[in-house]
Write a structure and sequence with these properties.
Layout: H1 3-9, H2 11-26, E1 36-39, H3 47-53, E2 71-80, E3 86-95, E4 101-106
Helix pairs in contact: 1-2
């Protein structure tokens, strides 16, 4: 299987390529960093939680949160300040299953 075929079949690899491109463009000091990846979970409140809030919904118990198809990539590295100090830099990029960037943020 070629790399292109593998990218099409594996959504994590495709999302990683998008995240790496965003990081290279916005934060070049993190361009060569290997990211860690976590699947993004959506929280669906339970019937008990809804009841405590006064928003209980009649019906069967809710199923666990479905897999969202979103992945968060965390890039950790260092950046040099204008004063010459080295500071830690962490960037997080969340990419959805359609290869769209949901959120991109960095530490200061």
């Amino acid at each position: 299987m070629t790399k292109r075929e593998q990218t099409k079949s594996d959504p994590v690899i495709a999302a990683r390529e998008v995240a790496c491109a965003v990081v290279a463009q916005r934060w070049p000091e993190l361009a060569g960093v290997e990211p860690t990846v976590t699947a993004r979970q959506h929280h669906v409140p339970t019937q008990a939680e809804l009841g405590r809030l006064g928003a209980a919904v009649a019906g069967p118990a809710q199923a666990p949160a479905p897999e969202s198809g979103e992945y968060t990539f965390t890039f950790a590295g260092q950046a040099r300040t204008p004063d010459g100090y080295i500071m830690p830099r962490i960037a997080r990029v969340t990419v959805d299953s359609q290869r769209r960037v949901v959120k991109a943020t960095t530490s200061k």
